[in-house]
Specification:
GO terms for molecular function: phosphoric diester hydrolase activity. The protein has 13 helices and 10 strands. With about 350 residues, it is an alpha/beta fold. The chain has one domain: TIM Barrel, CATH 3.20.20. An 8-stranded parallel β-barrel has the order 1-2-4-5-6-7-8-9. Helix 1 packs parallel to helix 12 and helix 3 runs parallel beside helix 4. The radius of gyration is 19 Å and the shape is globular.
Length: about 350
């Protein structure tokens, strides 16, 4: 374990890394926890935040009947999660759970007050059934909720553009990402389409496209500062998956700089993942345990986690995820230099 961590440290400090002292967000590989809202993983969501993980996932259902953002794995009409009715630091770890998305964000805001210098945390939001803009539950309303709850603690698309670039793609290719150090105290929201909407034969306008269109249109209207999240292209693929996903719509492609797919598909098939690091895109590799040779999906050894982190850093991952909530903060907070 010590040798592996030492190798990772050498990677971070090596003379060939121009940003060795303060690597950019696009130049590191970190570890995230799948479905961190589940009570079987953490009793309270604040404990998921305590875990040291660089990515935490929330599954969100738009409940158009009650006009609520539900957080649950499989129940669109109820909440089943470890988010609690806590709005202040003193209320954390003690209140009733099974709350809605607004309470999850309240927990994050309260926890942020206790840990203002925490490393950046990606909040991966899977919109299980997608948005319902016709019912007033669309990207605008999502942005408003996040802004109301978290204010300036969110790193937003407008900040990557920096008033210099006209698309997120142009900003990423210029490696305009800030350093990890400058993102202390920040959350970064990643949006992916949900399993239910993708399986719905009558729904062809998924979360990724809807939020990508949202970004494009906000920028055209001079309102890009209102956007709170980055949409991700979902699914491991060779080449540029945006060209396949939106073969006839080039206007939306430049608004995607997050990519999210199965680690084993990327690596075991042998896709050229250098595309992501060359262009400084953020690549989320899921089910990291299943890359050959497979390790435990829940509680591998510390040495196995370190080896998997180093392996997928070489395969250009930005964040690797699995159900490793049993691991200590010293393990889940590990980072390596991204090749």
């Amino acid at each position: 374990m010590a040798a592996l961590l030492g190798a990772a440290a050498l990677l971070m400090a090596g003379p060939g890394n121009a940003h060795a002292a303060a690597p950019r967000f696009s130049e590191t590989t970190a570890i995230g926890t799948h479905n961190a809202y589940e009570k079987a993983k953490y009793t309270y969501f604040a404990q998921a935040l305590d875990s040291g993980a660089s990515l935490l996932e929330l599954d969100v259902y738009v409940d158009s009947i009650s006009h609520r953002w539900r957080v649950s794995h499989s129940n669109p009409f109820g909440n089943d999660n470890n988010c609690e009715a806590a709005k202040t630091p003193g209320e954390l770890y003690s209140k009733d759970r099974d709350q809605d998305l607004g309470s999850c964000l309240d927990n994050m805001a309260a926890w942020n007050q206790l840990h203002p210098g925490h490393p950046p945390i990606v909040i991966k939001v899977e919109m299980k059934v997608g948005f319902n803009n016709n019912a007033g539950m669309g990207p605008d309303e999502f942005d408003t909720l996040v802004s109301q709850k978290l204010g300036g603690s969110v790193y937003k698309p407008a900040e990557l553009l920096g008033g210099t670039y006209s698309t997120l793609d142009a900003a990423a290719k210029a490696n305009a990402w800030p350093s990890r150090d400058s993102l202390k105290g920040k959350f970064v929201f990643e949006m992916i389409p949900g399993t239910v909407e993708m399986a719905n034969p009558f729904d062809h306008y998924w979360t990724d496209q809807e939020y990508g269109d949202h970004l494009r249109d906000l920028y055209a209207a001079g309102n890009i500062s209102q956007a709170e999240a980055f949409p991700a292209v979902l699914g491991a693929a060779g080449g540029d998956p945006r060209a396949t996903r939106w073969a006839s719509d080039t206007s939306i492609r430049p608004w995607f700089v997050f990519f999210d797919g199965d680690a084993a598909t990327y690596v075991n098939i042998g896709y050229d993942t250098s595309f992501y690091s060359t262009n400084h895109y953020l690549s989320i590799m899921t089910d990291a345990y299943n890359v050959s040779p497979a390790i435990s999906s829940t509680n591998p050894t510390d040495a196995e986690v370190a080896a998997r982190l180093a392996l997928l850093a070489k395969d250009h991952a930005s964040i690797i995820t699995s159900d490793w909530s049993a691991k200590s903060a010293s393990v889940l907070s590990s980072t390596a230099a991204r090749s």
